[in-house]
Amino acid sequence: MRSARTSQSQRSGYALLLMLLLIVVLCSLIWMDPMALMGGKGKGMPWNDESKIVLPGREVPRPGPQQPAISDNLCFGAKIEEDANGSGGLELFIMTDGRIKGVWGGTYKPKPEIMWEVVSAKFEGNIVPSKIYSDESGKDPTKLYFIGAGKILIMETNSKTNEVRTGNVKLYVTGWLDSQYKAVGKATITSDKKKYVEYAWQSKGEKTMFVPEFKKGPLGL
Which of the ends of the chain has fewer CB neighbours closer than 10 A, N or C? Predict the structure, then answer.
């Protein structure tokens, strides 16, 4: 017959083993995906809405009755600044068919010794009337969501090593349009959908007759 002390010791051993297993699982999750413990693999990130980009030849859903109507082509010009460490500009167009397209350029300093120059950045996408805006105050069905995706070419200069290199990363431009045609959004760049940098922007849309023609983007849009 086992003693009470032996049983207690075994239970303590099992508890310690369970704790070690939990630590191993948590560490594995963090190693495989650093965002795994931050709301389900990047919940709320723009690439989760990439499937909502409508492919060529298909019709973009029209805005709902409470959402701003797109009866004219709209142009949005916005500054994208990074405190005193860089600045740039974004130009975005929302067309009457619900498609969006735009360009982004500028220089930024993600680190004191690193300078980024956005050499080329184009994106395309569309409005998404089915996505409803919500925040701590509740839902607002009057705002209209849009998303665009593309590739961005960055030239990186390291002032310490004098090294210059270029790289292609993914660009997402998202935002919400209100009834006054004011847009508030983000430009997000990422190489692996885990590490990312995002910049906030805002602008008021102006009617325009001119919409630039861009080459085919990475999604074939």
Answer: N
